[in-house]
Specification:
Blueprint lengths: L6 H9 L5 E3 L1 H12 L9 H7 L9 H12 L14 E4 L2 E4 L1 H13 L7 H6 L2 H7 L11 H16 L5 H4 L7 H11 L6 E4 L2 E4 L2 H13 L21 H8 L3 E3 L1 H8 L9 H29 L7 H14 L18
Antiparallel strand pairs: 1-6, 2-3, 4-5
Helix pairs in contact: 1-14, 2-14, 3-11, 4-11, 12-15
Length: 339
Amino acid sequence: MEEPLPPRESGRWVAERSRDVFVEEEGVRRAAEMLYALRDSEVFTPQGWKKMNPLAPAFDSDLHINWVFVVDTMNFSFWPDRDDRQCTVTCRGATYSGYMALCAAVTRAMDEGVPITDAAYMASVSLEDLGRVLRSDTATPMPMLAERHRALNEGGAVLLRYGGSLRRFLSHGDGDARRLIRHIVDNLPSYRDEAEYEGKKIAFFKRAQILLADFWGIMEARGEGSIPNLDYLTMFADYRVPQALVYLGALRYSDSLMNTLKEGVLLPSGDRREVEIRGCSIWCVERMKAELCKLVEQRDGRPCHINSALIDFYLWPYAKEHSQEMSHIPIHHTRCIYY
């Protein structure tokens, strides 16, 4: 059985053949300059990851570390069918939507004494009980509850083979990011984010990569979370970061694609245009990283420690914070379990 191209190579393969999405080198250079100005800030550290997600617990027990696994196993498809119909979750005095609504629901469950991070509970929780865990403040429920339920049951059953511990599950890659990603997608079918493009099997592995990066973040790059070749990871191809890349001028959509997205057309998972958006986003961030590292080495005379995952960790909240300024740029809509 043919192995897919890894995410970085998949991004390049798509970008070199794309018909509707294009990496703009001038925009890439401008974006790299923006990142260069932030090169020594906390946003590019594990501590920055913690500040980006204040709901993440301390890493003082396996059950707390498993919070990352629960969230990332259900981390997909949050966009509402209508902007005025948002699923929201209130936790610890704040109200959240989108991905953060999921984080809030899992944290709220822990505060209420629900053993949501226990692998045996994950493996056996009923659809009805998970619905209560993920309940919305509004009449709009969290999308794709049945798919989240299947993924969590599957994930819990796998963790049970490793003593119910994400730490133990991720100890089987010898600290090597490439082997760890392979370990994740080989054992967890819901993380196997693959497609075909121009006759080649490709892989994005968005959730597998973010699981590893989030584990690195919650562990503050210590102990098992010290993964020396985290640079293997690419950006996490979703629907929010591409919008930011277009806004920054580093990515460009054809007029035809832009009109399609503005009309709200649903792009099926694996659709050529959907694959081009995701693949070109990966390659765009790779080009930004290369330009950023060149600036650091030339101007500062030192190696660059900022990798593609860290750039993604900056761009995702950037897109949320600048959502009004970039509201004229549509996000693509694809209902699937991969992002």
